[in-house]
Sequence to fold (146 residues):
Amino acid sequence: MIYANSDGGARGNPGPGAIGVIIRKEGEIIIRHREFLGQRVTNNQAEYLGLIKALEIGSKITKNLTCILDSELVVKQLLGEYKVKNPELLKLFLKVQKLQERFEKIKYLHSTRWDKFQKIADELVNEELNKRGYRKKNRFYKYKKR
Fold:
């Protein structure tokens, strides 16, 4: 089975945002991806955009994918447990729905941000934002690097 761990974050909400994605086969990471999203992104948008990138990358290597995210909101929306009320998130939700057509089997799982692979995706987000000069202002920042 191929797994995708994705994460997204914004420094400020909204603020500068980035994503981190790892694609792995069991415990072996085969792809690492990080990307800057822009100056005005919300945390939820970044989470969806991280998943979208994971689906795009994953579709090139497998037809069966398990997507792991630390965003309970995104996972519950994708599973139909929560409604998508925000118009901007609805656009991203519909893009995910379209990308799912590339797969024979797809699964979404919620994970804590303390999962070892989820931490790697989170580190990719922080590395990208730090590289661009968006450093944390204090130790209480939501996306504090570990």
